[in-house]
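Much of our argument rests on the idea that a fold can be written as discrete symbols. Part of our work consisted of pairing the sequence of a single chain with a tokenised description of its backbone. The amino acid sequence and the backbone structure tokens for this protein are reproduced below.
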Amino acid sequence: MSAKVFTIFPAIDLRQGKVVRLSEGDPARQTGYSENPVETARKWLDAGAKWLHVVNLDAALGEDETLNRTALNGILKTARECKAAVQYGGGIRSLPTAQELLDLGVQRIIFGTLAVTQPDQLQEALQRWGVECVAVSLDARGRDVLVRGWQDNSHLDLLDMAGNLKAGGLQWLVYTDVARDGLQTGFNQSVTLELARQSRLKVIASGGVRSLEEVTAAQQAGLAGIILGRALYEGNINLEEAITRYQNAG
């Protein structure tokens, strides 16, 4: 199994209009990195990023997302100027919301809770916008898929869910091991690769990535991409080096 294109996605997680990272998705364990998301986007785009992975934490947690929407508009404008794309997730729980975001210029919508709890809506999204504009994020603790901003356990099995999504026509999947996210303990390579092999989806690795060696492993295993968060913000991975070495080699 090999992916024709390997994409490195710098993450911009938004909370109250600022760039933050959460540890294991816990809102009480938040680290702030920038009060200027547009400046952050420009930094990653100038380093060569062709895609940005933007997450609306406020919407995912059911909080007021006004400041994040303002930040998103600025990020999209900057991405357009750099001829780059944005995939966007977090609290997108209706098709009208997804349509509004696509109309703003988001290239790929990432559904989480909706895909798990309303599979018929996901089917409609795939039919309406096509497989390249729709992704699903399966966020799991162990093999249990979590929903509603990682606050609730769906008690659905990760691999079973991925198989169902593939059967329904999905192509793009983001997988995050919640127990590793934001901790820089390394992404869960064994489960990520098993997920990609069994589901035959285009899997993007996420959660705990800490080193260039892990980017190597993801690319060589034929994954579709990898999301880099805290490792970028704390200087453990140089984005320009990673893109030059791995993404352009794909």
Notes: The chain has one domain: 7-247. The domain at 7-247 is CATH 3.20.20.70 (TIM Barrel). Residues 34 and 101 are 23 Å apart (CA to CA). The chain is about 40% helix and 30% strand.
